[in-house]
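Example record

The entry below shows one chain as it appears in the dataset: sequence first, then structure tokens.
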Amino acid sequence: MFYFRNYHWKLITLFISSILLFFGCAAENTDSGSSSSTTYSIGGTVTGLSGVLVIQNNSADYTVIEQTGADDISFTFQDRVSSGSAYSVSVKLQPNTQTCTVSDASGTTSQNMSNIIIACTSSSYSVSGTVSGLTGSVVLQNNGADDLTVSNGSFSFTSKVSKGSAYNVTVKTQPSPFTCSAASNRGLASDNMSSVSIVCAVQAYFLSGTASGLGSTTLGLQFDNETKSLSDNGSFSFSTPVAEGGGYSIYIPSQPDNRTCSVINGTRSNVSQDYTDLKAVCWEYIDNVTIGGINDNVSQTGSSPQLVEFESALYSAWVEPSSSDNKTRIRVAKYLDNTSSWSFVDSSGINNKSFDSSRTSQDASQPVLFVEDKTSPSLFMAWVEELAGTSYVSIARYINSSWNSYALINKDNQALSSPHGVYHSYDSNLYVTWSELDNVSISQIRVSKVTGTFWDGNEATGINDNTSHHATQPKLASLSSNLYAIWRENGSDNLTGKIRVKVSSASSTSWTSIDGSGTSGINKSTSYDAEAPEMIVFDSKIYAAWQESNSDNITQIRVAVFNGNITSPSWSFVDNGDSTKGMNLIIDTDGNENSTAPRMTVFNSSLYLTWLQEHGLSKQMRLAKYNGNDSSAEWTTVDRYDEFGVSRFGLNYNILKVASTPILASSNSKLYAAWAEPDSSGINQIRVVENPF
């Protein structure tokens, strides 16, 4: 596992170098021909740069610049801009220790543009705060030095901290009989830091907890000036006290090999008692770790992983090309917890040709695993595959240690988006939903029992709110006697996506809208696009998650809960954010990093949410746990902590790579996460981690 503080910019440099080799340098010349086909180059000069800078034109064309000397640097974007078209140059990723600003950043092209100036200056910031509750004085340190003697009131360290560098304010020596605790005292300098709080009191309390998931590794925990080295699962305690009314923050200076660890309940303020509920938990990579993921062939790209528990074991499915004909098929493997290994249960992969040798091999895609939860349960899988020119929703059943073709359940036409299945305990049936074109090529949401009995009226159209608008990405959930469906459907402009929700009883194929009807669905805003809906039952309630753009065109993760009243339906947001920023705020305080692909699961009576969130040029696999209180909703990150608390990095094996298609599942009292992530050769590997919370 890579450690951010020590390796971040070394890894960035290697990553950036490969991008530079790919892009090369664009020539500054003007195309010949008519004015309508004339294009112009966009470029300029970078001054004062020290480090790595990523700039963009029109939020799309990225250029990476690295300074290795003292000279100014000329740049030209690879993509040329048509005559009369707009250009807009901005900074995508700032250097580690500098701030770069753009002059003459935008305009309309009428010639080659080379006058854009990007000026970079080194920045440093002050570290300051307040002391309260103290009689006398106390000596503080920043980063283990820069001693500062202070009393009650404000303070400021003499030495400033460079932009992007660490600050860590601690108490050097406790002023008996007082105990002083530091809060909001560490981080990476991005502005003048004035929020450090030193609270002193005569009464003090102590911290303890348990560690899990360590295996044979050693985990270091840091609290103020005390380092705790954990080599075994079990209990631990700190000897450093916390002042009454003060706060504390436990952090992890470096991650152990093949694991990424977090401290749950590792930060608190206004302490008023001893705390014994600290949990140091480590996610362990249970794939092939340094070789690759669980791909059958690590030289073939894997995608669209799925996870499900079946017969007390974890099963994973994903898409992977066959080395014989390069057609994609579905691979399925079972995790053997007792041996920490994976065993394939799909022969050489699943597609319709694997069941009927007379069929021509076609690409199989978009798998989903689901379980028929009866006394004698069965494992089912649905996927999309073309047969005789039509894309079908294909279903297979795993029984007696082998897969058997079960059904093709399309209505009449091309199947589009990924199917989804759920077991409805009320009537002991499996239901499947998918998106399918109707006779006039409008995508409809279809619902059917696995047996082939349609549950959407069996008409030419499906359950769309408006059957003249395209609908995709459906999901199902079962609660009590009702079956719930959620999907993305184009709004009145037939472009902007709305999140629609309907409900059906087990005794009727009719569907009732519970999303407010009208034109908005359950979107936070009626004006912006929403997609990738997810739905789950937690605490006997329906929860929904999706991604939605805001006014700044940043995609946010939204989460809402249904009031349970079908005749008077309403949804309440429980996404730990504000009106515009959703779940993004948990990781990114200004909420300006695109977040996508939410997925949920229930584990140990708690709701967990995973999603992808941008960080620079990478995408991180994030994970958060819900407190379960809809009236005072809070989410806590449980994916990764670095030495400053919540990390900007997630569960990625390589923090510089772009993760995709996350999924969660629980099995044998453990929580599992899977996703696709490129290896050093750019081949997507299916990564899997487990965490015994």
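Notes for this example: Residues 1-35 have pLDDT under 50 and may be disordered. The longest helix spans residues 4-23.
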